[in-house]
Amino acid sequence: MQESSMNFDMENVEPFLQRVSSLISSGFGGQEVAKVVAMAKQMGVDDERELEFRIQYDGKPAVLRVRVFMDDVDAPDLYFFSPESLAERIDAEMEKFCEELGI
Description:
Layout: E1 2-7, H1 10-22, H2 30-42, E2 48-57, E3 60-70, E4 76-82, H3 84-101
Antiparallel strand pairs: 1-4, 2-3, 3-4
């Protein structure tokens, strides 16, 4: 498992998770994205929680762990723990996402 992580403004959590969802064949779709977003929205400052999802990635079963650390009331840190090739793709999406938002 390899880690990918970034700090997000709360309004950017769902759009970014949807991008991650598009990289995964199954096991991390709209319902799972909504679960992570709902969890993040109810967390308090300095709270940390993690969800684990059984996914299909690159034709194989795998695990995706998403950890949320509420660094600030509206700015959670998201940590993704996944197979190396997926982590590299998540990192690339993070770069692209930041470029698109101008951050």
